[in-house]
């Protein structure tokens, strides 16, 4: 089993982005974490171990302001973090990809699939949350939140997993600019959407909305009736493993994942 390599990449402005990669056969599986999450989470490490056992190339990373990367969280936004991910992937995994995005990482995976087309062979979303700023955050803003945004440029959102999270006007404005649902998403490769029906953060109907919106025909939604937002219990991780190996299994028979790319008009 090959050892995982770790490092840091200067994105050009002094902010260093942390990454960890596992050599192996392609396509490289890339894990994209969620909002305020990091690459040391349960799902990221489980995927690393799954890929290590298969001899599959794997990459995980921390966006700026997340985990052990440099930068300030409050200065980031969806576009910034998508660019961070793209930079690390270009440097560490320049070939074909299978993108696995958790929550906000699902949004970022969709943006990268739109950008890279055929280079992305398949997508896996885990409680994928495209457009969560406009679909979930903005409708829930209180008058006090709006006043704080106008006055200070941010407010603090209660967080069930830890300290309150600063929500900035920049994040909300950029979220509208990075909308997935606001324009066509003509990705044509296989898509798998894992979604808990007891997800308190992302309504499970988001998965059905995304399945209807995306251009691909090979789209499957795997609903976990008692699953929460994290989907990190042993049975959830087993489902993730089965889903990923199902996508990659064609390689075991000698056939690579076909080029996915952009659906024809």
From TrEMBL:
It is an enzyme of class 3 (hydrolase). It comes from the Bacteria. InterPro entries: AB_hydrolase_1 (IPR000073), AB_hydrolase_fold (IPR029058), ABHD10_acyl-thioesterase (IPR052382). GO terms for molecular function: hydrolase activity. It catalyses: mycophenolic acid O-acyl-beta-D-glucuronide + H2O = mycophenolate + D-glucuronate + H(+); S-hexadecanoyl-L-cysteinyl-[protein] + H2O = L-cysteinyl-[protein] + hexadecanoate + H(+). Residues 46-235 form the AB hydrolase-1 domain. Keywords: Hydrolase, Transit peptide. Its EC number is 3.1.1.93, 3.1.2.22. It holds the Pfam family Abhydrolase_6. Acts as an acyl-protein thioesterase that hydrolyzes fatty acids from acylated residues in proteins. Regulates the mitochondrial S-depalmitoylation of the nucleophilic active site residue of peroxiredoxin-5/PRDX5, a key antioxidant protein, therefore modulating mitochondrial antioxidant ability. Also catalyzes the deglucuronidation of mycophenolic acid acyl-glucuronide, an active metabolite of the immunosuppressant drug mycophenolate. This is Palmitoyl-protein thioesterase ABHD10, mitochondrial. The lineage of its organism: Bacteria, Pseudomonadati, Pseudomonadota, Alphaproteobacteria, Acetobacterales.
């Amino acid at each position: 089993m090959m050892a995982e390599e770790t490092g840091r990449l200067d994105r050009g402005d002094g902010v260093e982005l942390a990454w960890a990669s596992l050599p192996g056969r392609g396509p490289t599986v890339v894990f994209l974490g969620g909002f305020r999450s990091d690459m040391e989470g349960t799902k990221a490490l489980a995927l690393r171990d799954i890929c290590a056992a298969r001899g599959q190339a794997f990459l995980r990373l921390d966006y700026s302001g997340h985990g052990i990367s440099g930068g300030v969280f409050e200065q980031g936004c969806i576009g910034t973090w998508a660019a961070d991910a793209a930079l690390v992937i270009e440097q560490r995994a320049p070939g074909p990809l299978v993108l696995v995005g958790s929550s906000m990482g699902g949004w970022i995976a969709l943006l990268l699939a739109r950008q890279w087309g055929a280079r992305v062979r398949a997508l896996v979303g885990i409680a994928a949350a495209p457009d969560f700023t406009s679909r979930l955050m903005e409708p829930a803003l209180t008058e006090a939140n709006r006043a704080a945004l106008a006055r200070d440029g941010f407010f603090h959102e209660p967080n069930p997993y830890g300290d309150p999270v600063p929500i900035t006007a920049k994040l909300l404005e950029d979220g509208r600019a990075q909308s997935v649902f606001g324009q066509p998403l003509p990705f044509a490769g296989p898509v798998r959407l894992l979604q808990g029906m007891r997800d308190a953060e992302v309504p499970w109907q988001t998965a059905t909305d995304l399945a209807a919106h995306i251009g691909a025909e090979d789209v499957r939604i795997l609903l976990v009736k008692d699953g929460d937002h994290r989907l990190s219990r042993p049975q959830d991780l087993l489902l993730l493993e089965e889903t990923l190996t199902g996508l990659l299994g064609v390689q075991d028979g000698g056939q690579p994942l076909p080029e996915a790319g952009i659906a024809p008009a």
